[in-house]
Amino acid sequence: MNIVFMGTPDFAVPALEVLYNSKHNIIGVFSQPDKPVGRKQVLTPPPVKAFAVQNGLSVYQPDSLKNDDAYELIQNLNPDIIVVAAYGKILPKNILDYPKYGCVNIHASLLPKYRGAAPIQWAVLNGDKETGITIMKMAEGLDTGDMILVDKTKIGEDETSAELFDRLAKQGAVSLIKALDRIESGNAEFTVQDDTLSTYAAKITKQLSPIDWSKSAKEVHNLVRGLQTWPCASTVIDGKEFKIHKTLLSLKTSDKTGEIVDNKGVLTVCCGDGNCVDILEIQPQGKKKMDIKSFLAGNKLELGTILGE
Asked: What pLDDT, in 10s, does the model give residues 158-167?
């Protein structure tokens, strides 16, 4: 099939790479415009564009798809199908309806659960034990299209959203090829989503970062896992803010919320349910993250210190 691919971040690159190495023909790659990055604000291409340019693929970076120029461009390319993976722009109805096989999207959740911008993070934040990839035919609503293929995977108890992000990016690429084969052969089945089971995965913000130590140990651990690598969970220690990058559930118990109950090579903190978490990686404000042993070697924290105050 002649395919137009639309994607922007790292998550979309494995799918583009698999398509590039497949029997299908990529006739154009759409990506968001280059953006200033870092302190020096260097104009930087998104990962999908970088891969496309490196491999000699034609790249298009329109500011919007909701105009006549964008539609005319799609008409001139004349794709059999459009594949979308974390593109970041809304496709208008005239583009959704143009290709012979329509437009399909790689979505990183088991739809209709977690429609929206941050399905991977919310699956971890909520302590889900399972997630996966849904390949769906795109419709005008937010992730409401008919499902073509669903591939499930388990979420590890200590797996971070960043780690899950990488796994699902690779899984999504494999799922995409399977779905395209079904579509091309005429064997694809389209399953309507049950809207009554839908949940919304809102955009992740810094407001989620502060740890509420009155929550259970599992909830605290899930927050730390879910906010990797941005914006990261945080807490206040002796009046100073720290990012918490890694925790493990501890076997220790205590009865005072937020209290440090062990500081010998590990920083163990009591949570609201009486169970504890071990802080394994921490980052003082304005400094690099470090393992907890290195941190404690240069920072004395007394037993009984209350975090979050």
From this structure: 999 999 999 9
